[in-house]
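ok so I'm stuck.
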Amino acid sequence: MKISKYPVMLLFLAVLNIHCSSGEIDRTGLVKVSERVYAFIAEGAGTAQGLGANSGFVLGDDAVLVIDSRYTPALAGQLLEAVRSVTDLPVKYLVNTHYHPDHTWGNSVFADLGAVIIARPETRQGIEKYAPVYLEYYRKEMPEKYELLVDVRITLPDSVITENTVIDLGGVEVELFYPGPAHTAGDLIVSIGSEKTLFTGGLACNGYHANMGDPGADFDNWIAALDDMEKRAPVRVVPGQGKVCGKGVFAVQKKYLLDLIEIGRSAIREEKIFSEYLPDVVIPDSEEYRQKNMIAFNIQAVYRRYMFSTVDPDFMLDTSDDFVIQDGGGNAGKGRIKWIRQNEDGYSELELLWKPANVAEVLVQDIYDDVGRHLGKNTGLHMAVLGSKKIMFGDSESNAVFGSWGRKIRSVVATGGIWTWSMMIREGKIYSVRMTTNAMGDEAMEEYNMEILEKAVSTLHFIR
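replied:
not stuck anymore, here's the structure
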């Protein structure tokens, strides 16, 4: 199949070998993987080293194909220098294996050479959607890192592929294949069959914690993709992060995913509070892995993905896509689930708790008592009660109490926002819902956010 070259208008992070295989090449920088294939292995996990993200290139008789452009134009320039140290052939193609910044923010360097940038449509969409947000975040919140990113010129892929594609570079063919949503929604695996070499993008890491937190990730399909790559029996594998190794990396990566998923699901079943539980998390055989900050993202991703299937509550709640599960646990008889929503409108939180109860109806005083118990467990909070009202709790009208809240910092209460608390009884269980929002003092926005929260609660429906 030929590559489409039409322009498309469509709407991060992962060197040490842990049973990867005896095929590891213990080097960073430019690594000759085979006669036609070179890897460029990141020297470290820091921002200046590109967050550990690897790249590489394939030499044909006629042209060069580069795989991933690194984190900054300066790092992309290092990669280009490496190419030029080997060949003067034109860099005709650049493949983005996925949209994460550490693999794509050097795109402009190769675009300026006239290279065709190839990716899945989901990758193009991801760069377009998230790259400006990431850059603005760094500019405002992490200026010391932004200094390294100030020259980034967001450059979108100009050719998207929707089917497995073979590129002939002259004397060597490169296959791009799509395993379906896995590490991200738009992963591409790069195979050079004649050289028995695979570039995995973010699907496999060697001595790094994988990034499981992407919104487009599909863990089941990720595991299936690892199995498929292993069946291809490559001699050499260039992982997204870490040193070049053999196909043993796929079994290691699969075990990591399965172990972490089970650790997270066990915590959900035991109703462990995410923030309190996180410091105790130990993932077998990964004690020396780099980028330990990914553990929190990965456990959080398991909570989001498996909360409902693990807890198996008797209700559903129809929230908008920008509400994500942050915490929770338990079972159908007793448990809790917390959603958060954070965007330009501020921060909102919705937590639904349930447990057995003998009472027949809920009075406003019961809600006051529940609020008091909550404050007793969270001594750093201040919650002022301003009144009571009725809200729709599913298809029933329920008593609710509302007020303002803030965090206690020493003896001062910082501005927080507004809150609403409601409870209801159904079939021997009491359901309690806590809604809070903070729009940094914008009262109109906080009232708007509360309307969204209460509308979400009104969509609750019981499924058994």
